[in-house]
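General statements about sequence and structure are easier to judge against a single worked case. For one protein, we set the task of working out the C-alpha cells from the amino acid sequence alone. The sequence in question and its C-alpha cells are set out directly beneath this paragraph.
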Amino acid sequence: MLCTGRELLPLINLAMNQTEFKFYLDFQDCLEVNDSKIPKSIKASSWFKQLIEIGVIYNEKSGRGRVYKINNIQKYNQLLKAKVNVENPTIENKADATRVLRNSKVKAGLGQMTFFIIKGNIDFNLNEYLIPLKHYTELFGGFLINDLTSLNGSKVALIENKYFFIEAYKIVPEDFICIHKYGRWSSSDFQCLGEMEKITFFGDYDLLGLDEFLKLQEIQSHSSFFVPDNFDSLFNRYSQIFDGSKKFNQNLSSRVRNAVDPTIAKIRDLVLKNNRILEQEALLIPYND
C-alpha cells in the first residue's frame, strides 16, 4: 500500500517514548534490523504497525528468522522528521522532551549534550576562527566546542574513546589534530572535515567501530581506519568475548556486512567468527608486552 497524505497526520500525532525514539533513529541509520532485535513494545505499537501497513517498512525471511527493512527511505525520513525534531534531538529537560518526542514523560539523559574535545600541536582554523590549539593543549590539555561547522587543517585523527584520546599522542603522530566527540558522530559532522588532507579514524575493532568508520568514508572517501602492525597479536591476546548484551551494542549493519575493503572485511570476519572484540585502548599496551 502506498503512503498518501491522508495517513501522515495520525502517524505524526502519535507520541513517541524514549525506547521508540532510539530505535527509529538507529533503524534510519542501518536501514534494516533483525526481528529478534526489535523490542516487543515497538512491534506492538500503532506507529510501527502503520509504517508496515502503508508500505514504508516491510519484513522478509532471513535464515531462520525475519528481518525488517526500510522500503521507502525518503518517506521514512519525512515521517520521522515530522514526528520528532531529528535535526536537533537533544533532550535536557521536559520542554525538550515535548518538543522532540511530543512526550514529557521520558527519562533524563536520552539526548545528552554533545561536544567536541580537540587537542594538537599546531594552530588551525575552526569555524572560520584561527585557534591557538597548541597553546590551549599545553595549558589545559585541549579545547572544547559544542558546534563544529568547518575545520581547516592538514591531518586529523578522529578518536572514538575518551581515554584513548587522553593518551592519543602515544600512538597518533604529532602533526595530527586529535578530535573526540562526546556523543555520536553525525553526517553533518563528517561533512565539516572536507578541507582536511588526511583523516584517520581510531575506533574500537568491533562492529560498531567499523560502522562508524564506514559512515565517515561514505562522506570522506579519503579517510582511513587505523590498524596497527601488531593487530593480530593484540587481538589474539587482549580481545574479549561479547555476549550480545546492551554493553557491547554489536549489531551487524548492512554497511559492515557488505564492506569489501580488505582491512574492514578482515576485522569484521574476525569479530563474527570468534565472537570477540578488541577495544582501541589495547593500542596503548607496549608492543613487546
In short: The longest helix spans residues 18-30.
